[in-house]
C-alpha cells in the first residue's frame, strides 16, 4: 500500500495505535467536543482531549509537584515553548535521543498540563496545542532513538496526533504520522507502517511539497523492509520530485523546514535504498546508494552528528557487501569518529551490523591488524 492506495480502516488503525476507539487517537471532530460548555477562552475542561480512555488519558510521565502553569497563556509563552523545542531538536541532532529525552518529556508534560490549567484566546490556544504537538512528536522520536520500549514512544506519538488534531494543524499531524510510520518499520511492522501513512491521504493536497517528500521517504523505508524494490525506488523518485518542486520559502516552515536541506533528503531516502541494497545485493543498486549517501554526508554539517554517523556507517556496510574492505575501513573510521558522543540506540544497531559484517570477511594480510582494531573499536561503541 502507498499514499495512492486506500486509507486504513478503523480496525487497522486501532491495531497499529493499540487503542480501542478512534477518539483515543484523536480521530474525532474537535468541534463536537464539550468546548461550547467551557467557553472558547478556557482550557480548564477536557474538551481539548475528548473523552479519552486508557493509557493515553494522562501524560506519559508523572506530574512534577510544585511546577506552576501561567494563569493565562499568551503569545510570549508560545514563543518561549518554541525556543525550547528548537534547543531540544539541536540536542537530538548532535547527541541523539539518549541524553535529551527526559528533558523533552518533562517539558511536554508541563505543556500538556498548562493546556488544562490555563486560559487563552482561541487563536493562542490553537498555537499552543500545535506547538505542544510538535514537542510530543519530538519526545516520541527521542524515545524511539534511545531504544525505549515501543509503548513509550507510541504514547508520545499518539498524544501528539491528539493535540494536532484538536489544533486543526494538518501539517503537524502528518509529520507525527510519518514519525510513527518510521517507528513501526524499524520495529518490523512495515505493513502497518504503510497502513498508518494512509491517515494523511485525506489532507494530501494540503501538505507542503516537503511534507509530501517526507511521506514518500517513510513509504520507501517500509517498502525496502518488505524487499519491494519497485515500490521502494518509485517512492524515492517521487520524494526527489516533491523536493525539487518545493519553493525556497519552505525552508522556513516550522514543521517541514528540516527537509529543505538537500543532504537530509539525499540521506533519508538513501537509507531506504540501503536497506534494500543490503538485502538484495544488487551491484548497481549498491553503487547508486553509496553515491547518494556519500553526497548526503558531504552536505551534512557537524551539527547533525547522528546523521553523519548513521550515513557513514551504512556506507561502510555497503562497501563490505561489495567486498571492498579497504574502503569500508576508511568509512568506518569516519563514521565512528562522528558517533563518539552520540547516544542513539539506532546508531548502536547499525554499529553492530557493521561489526558482524567485518567479523566474517576475509582480508589481505596487510589489512588484518587494522581490521582487528576496527572490530574492537566498533564493539566498544556498540556497547
Give a verbal description of the structure.
The chain is an all-alpha fold and 383 residues long. The chain contains 16 helices and no strands. The two termini are 37 Å apart.
Alpha-beta classification: mainly alpha
Shape designation: globular
Order of helices and strands: HHHHHHHHHHHHHHHH
Sketch the major β-sheet: none
By DSSP (H or I, 4+ residues per run), the number of helices equals 16
Task: Outline the low-pLDDT stretches.
Answer: 22-63
Overall pLDDT score? 85
Beta-strand share of residues: under 5%
Looking at the chains present, what oligomeric state does this protein adopt? Answer: single chain
Global Rg: 22 Å
Q: Termini separation (Å)?
A: 37 Å
Helix content: 55-70%
- Secondary structure: number of strands: 0
Give me a quick take on this structure:
The protein is an all-alpha fold and 383 residues long. 67% of the residues lie in helices and 0% in strands.
What topology does this entry show?
Layout: H1 10-17, H2 35-38, H3 75-95, H4 97-117, H5 122-146, H6 150-166, H7 170-186, H8 190-197, H9 209-225, H10 229-245, H11 262-280, H12 283-299, H13 305-322, H14 325-339, H15 345-359, H16 365-382
Helix pairs in contact: 3-4, 3-5, 4-5, 5-6, 5-7, 6-7, 7-8, 7-9, 8-9, 9-10, 9-11, 10-11, 11-12, 11-13, 12-13, 13-14, 13-15, 14-15, 14-16, 15-16
List keywords for this structure.
single chain; 383 residues; mainly alpha; 16 helices; 0% strand
Amino acid at each position: 500500500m502507498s499514499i495512492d492506495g486506500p486509507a486504513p480502516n478503523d480496525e487497522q488503525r486501532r491495531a497499529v495505535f493499540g487503542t480501542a476507539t478512534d477518539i483515543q487517537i484523536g480521530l474525532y471532530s474537535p468541534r463536537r467536543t464539550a468546548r461550547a460548555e467551557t467557553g472558547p477562552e478556557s482550557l480548564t475542561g477536557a474538551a481539548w482531549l475528548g473523552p479519552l480512555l486508557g493509557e493515553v488519558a494522562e501524560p506519559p510521565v508523572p506530574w512534577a509537584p510544585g511546577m506552576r502553569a501561567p494563569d493565562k497563556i499568551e503569545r510570549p509563552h508560545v514563543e518561549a515553548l518554541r525556543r525550547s523545542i528548537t534547543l531540544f531538536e539541536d540536542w537530538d541532532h548532535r547527541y541523539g535521543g539518549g541524553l535529551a529525552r527526559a528533558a523533552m518529556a518533562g517539558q511536554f508534560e508541563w505543556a500538556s498540563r498548562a493546556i488544562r490549567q490555563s486560559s487563552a484566546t482561541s487563536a493562542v490556544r490553537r498555537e499552543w496545542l500545535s506547538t505542544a504537538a510538535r514537542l510530543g512528536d519530538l519526545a516520541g522520536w527521542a524515545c524511539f532513538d534511545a531504544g525505549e520500549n515501543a509503548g513509550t514512544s507510541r504514547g508520545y506519538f499518539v498524544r501528539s496526533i491528539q493535540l494536532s488534531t484538536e489544533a486543526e494543524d494538518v501539517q503537524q499531524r502528518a509529520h507525527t504520522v510519518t514519525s510513527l510510520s518510521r517507528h513501526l518499520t524499524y520495529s518490523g511492522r512495515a505493513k502497518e507502517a504503510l497502513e498508518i501513512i494512509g491517515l494523511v491521504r485525506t489532507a494530501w493536497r494540503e501538505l507542503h511539497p516537503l511534507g509530501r517528500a517526507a511521506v514518500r521517504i517513510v513509504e520507501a523505508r517500509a517498502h525496502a523492509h518488505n524487499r519491494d524494490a519497485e515500490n521502494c525506488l518509485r517512492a524515492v523518485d517521487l520524494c526527489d520530485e516533491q523536493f525539487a518542486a518545493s519553493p525556497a520559502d519552505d525552508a522556513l516552515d516550522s514543521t517541514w523546514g528540516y527537509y529543505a536541506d538537500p543532504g537530509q533528503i539525499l540521506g533519508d531516502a538513501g537509507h531506504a535504498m540501503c536497506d534494500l541494497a543490503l538485502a538484495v545485493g544488487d551491484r548497481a543498486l549498491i553503487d547508486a546508494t553509496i553515491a547518494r549517501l556519500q553526497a548526503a554526508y558531504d552536505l551534512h554539517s557537524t551539527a547533525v552528528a547522528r546523521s553523519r554517523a548513521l550515513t557513514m556507517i551504512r556506507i561502510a556496510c555497503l562497501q563490505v557487501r561489495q567486498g571492498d574492505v579497504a574502503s569500508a575501513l576508511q568509512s568506518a573510521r569516519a563514521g565512528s569518529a562522528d558517533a563518539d558522543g552520540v547516544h542513539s540506540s539506532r546508531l548502536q544497531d547499525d554499529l553492530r551490523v557493521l561489526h558482524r559484517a567485518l567479523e566474517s570477511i576475509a582480508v589481505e594480510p596487510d589489512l588484518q591488524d587494522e581490521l582487528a582494531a576496527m572490530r574492537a573499536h566498533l564493539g566498544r561503541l556498540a556497547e
